[in-house]
From TrEMBL:
Its EC number is 2.7.7.65. Residues 1-31 form the signal peptide. It holds the Pfam family GGDEF. It catalyses: 2 GTP = 3',3'-c-di-GMP + 2 diphosphate. It comes from Luteibacter jiangsuensis. Keywords: Membrane, Signal, Transmembrane, Transmembrane helix. It is an enzyme of class 2 (transferase). The keyword Transmembrane applies. The chain crosses the membrane at residues 176-201, 208-231, 243-263, 275-298, 304-325, 332-353, 365-386. This is diguanylate cyclase.
Amino acid sequence: MSNRQHGWVYRLFQATVLCGLLLGSTATASAATLTANWREVRPGDAPAEILREAAQRPLPAFDPARMQILPNAPTGTWVIVHSLPPWTTGERVLSVGHPGMGAVSLYDGDTLVATTSLDDFGPSPHGHGRLIFNVPASIPASRPLLLKFEPTAQSPGAVTISIDSWPDYLRDDGSWMVFATGCFAVMLTMALMALCFTLILRDMTFGWYAAYLICYALIQGLRSGFVFHPLELQSLAGMADSLGAAVTALSVTFAALFMLRFAKVDEYVPLLRTPVLAFAVVMPLLIVLRASGVGVLVGMAQLLLQPLLLLGALLLLVAGAIAAVRGSRHAWFFLAGWTPLLILTALCGAQQQGMFTEAPWLPDAAIAVGAFEAIVLSIGLSDRALTIRHDRDRARQLADSDPLTGLLNRRAWTDAATGVLEQGSSRPIAVLFFDLDHFKELNDRHGHATGDRALVAVAAALRHELRPPDLLGRYGGEEFVALLQGVEKENAMQVATRLCRRVHRLDVHLGSPDSLLTVSIGVAMRTPADTVQSLVERADKAMYAAKLAGRNQAMCAGHAGPVLVRRNDVGKAVN
């Protein structure tokens, strides 16, 4: 990758990080006027008693603006939220960010105000990317609010809590919606583009990439709740935990298969091909074991899933880095997209363990970095598509060209001539068949290298004399063939005569100074019944007639009166 490419990749990543920082500062500012306490739910707890207990003795406190990991107690967790003065009046919105997939209930004393979750499709309101509760004006802002985080099979997440007025909430929610919708739109658009390239180029590299992007977008959509609100995919409700684990494993499988082909691991890092491929196969097997319902297998799959995800991601990073260092151009694109995503994933994982609590924007940054990766890798895939097209065009050119003279070879010339005849044009068409006179004598006396130079010189002379639309090819050995469009018989004979003179003027000596290389040309005019083969055959017969008549002349098929060009009278046509 060039320095210029490194520059725009760095600037794009820098812009993504700044967006995350902006989101983080906004979230922190909104929660700066709250304090919170928590304790585990005990059997027989009543909401009003929890509030009285919190007023009588201190409970463990935390800053709602910083991400707090709540214990996943078997009976749940209570959280008491206090608003600090100055207090506001009117309806308010209590927001819980990054709550996981468990349900959360809001109480006012012993009164249950509402229960909701990310995949809840009950009565509104529903948040976008967070849980929200409408706190009515009848509840004073000075009164503490009680939240109950219900127990879940998975961790409830590292949560943040804020209370805002409805206008402030709607403004923040609108900003998040624009941000998240833009990121998901980028990922899905890039995936659609990759699928189109898969069908057009018949290259599964693009297909693996599209599958990976769709999986990653679904992972982030489930974690943020975007697939539930605003997308309203009610069919996925209750499936977030199992579906999220399965899609996570599949995403890294598709990433491994994509990287193998995209970074050309077979070519640049052959020793890592088998480990990467094994990793791609093992991950879906873990999902099958996890879904088997057999306790031992399920436990083993859950135990191995996260460590293997981490090791596999690092393996892909190492393989891509080695391939890049060893010369894989596209491995640089993979590293530019994969490394920031891996770093963000590691940071989010550490956040779930209680680290980086002051950065509640990290989960949203993971969405942004997913869009960043989609753009970078799509640019890399576009570069790959252009490279493939260039290589195919080059291969086709080499397949169609005579390697010595650069003219069309016999097959390519025949295909092109067939296409001209199949157009059904009423314009006259002439075929000229050339054969160099006494060419064997030139090879025998001066060697094949001299003969090759003579063929190159003749080809250049013929190309110079003919028009660009005229098809000129090397038919084989010392034989050439040309197809001229829009020329009558007389014009075709004049062209053939001029070509005879041009070859004669090359002054290629056969043996003695007076013995020069010449060419005999047969001309055939197309008739309605002609094919390329019949035209060439008639031109070939006319060429042999020209040789029998003394060589160094042109003759038209079916007509007498060859055109002669003599060594001592170059420039005159003798009929």
